[in-house]
Every structure is written in C-alpha cells, then in structure tokens.
C-alpha cells in the first residue's frame, strides 16, 4: 500500500493505492496519526487507487475520522473504486462517513 499526502491549504489530501489490510493498516495509521495533531486540518481521502480494504482498513479509517472529529475537524472520502464502494456499503460506512464522487466535491463539502 502507498499513501501520498498533500497539504492543500485548508485540508490534507491522502491518496491511497494498493491494499489496506491487517498487514498494511499499521503503516497507514502511523502515516495518518500526525495529521490529527496540532495544527490539524480536515482530511480528504482519495481512494481511487485502493484495490482492497479489509475490516482492519475500515477500522483505521474510522479511527482517523473519530480522532479528527474529537479535535473539531472533519473527514471526507472520495473517488471510491467499485470494490471499495461495495465494502463501504456492506459495512454500513456509506451512511456514517462522508462519501463524495471526487476531491473537488469533498473539498466543497468540508468548507460547508
């Protein structure tokens, strides 16, 4: 799994590719943790390159969202691949997380 982080001014963009599972979620957690520390910002996760996400990966996403929310920040997910969208739907994440079609829509949602 690869994580690319970009500071977009008002938010951080995390672009994930590969597989997020039990073996890769600890490295994702380690890369995402600094984004919840001061000075934190909202976070957009672009999942277009994510080929697979397991329950461990879902737990990592939920932990990041909760940590940001605790600090008064928000998380939005965008560009879900069909496989990732199915996993989010089955897990019930479509109704508890902000899921947008692309980065532009996610950034606009976070501003509003």
Give the secondary structure arrangement, pairings included:
Blueprint: E1 2-7, E2 11-20, H1 25-32, E3 42-53, H2 55-70, E4 75-78, H3 82-91, E5 98-100, H4 103-111
Parallel strand pairs: 2-3, 3-4, 4-5
Antiparallel strand pairs: 1-2
Helix pairs in contact: 1-2
Describe the structure.
This protein is an alpha/beta fold. It has one domain: Transcription Regulator spoIIAA, CATH 3.30.750.24. It has a five-stranded mixed sheet, sandwiched between helices. Helix 3 links the parallel strand 4 and strand 5.
Keywords:
Transcription Regulator spoIIAA, single chain, alpha/beta, 112 residues
Give the topology string: H per helix, E per strand.
Answer: EEHEHEHEH
**Uncertain runs:** none
CATH superfamily: STAS domain
Counting DSSP H or I runs of 4 or more residues, the number of helices is 4
What name is given to the CATH topology? Transcription Regulator spoIIAA
Structural class: alpha/beta
Query: What is the 3D form?
Result: globular
CATH architecture: 2-Layer Sandwich
Can you summarize the main beta sheet?
A: 5 strands, mixed
The total beta strand count reads: 5
For the record, give the distance between the C-alpha atoms at the N and C termini, rounded to a whole number: 31 Å
> How many domains, as an integer?
1
Helix content: 25-40%
Provide the gyration radius in Å: 13 Å
**In the CATH hierarchy, what is the class?**
Alpha Beta
Widest sheet: strand ordering: 1-2-3-4-5
Give the strand content: 25-35%
Average pLDDT rating: 95
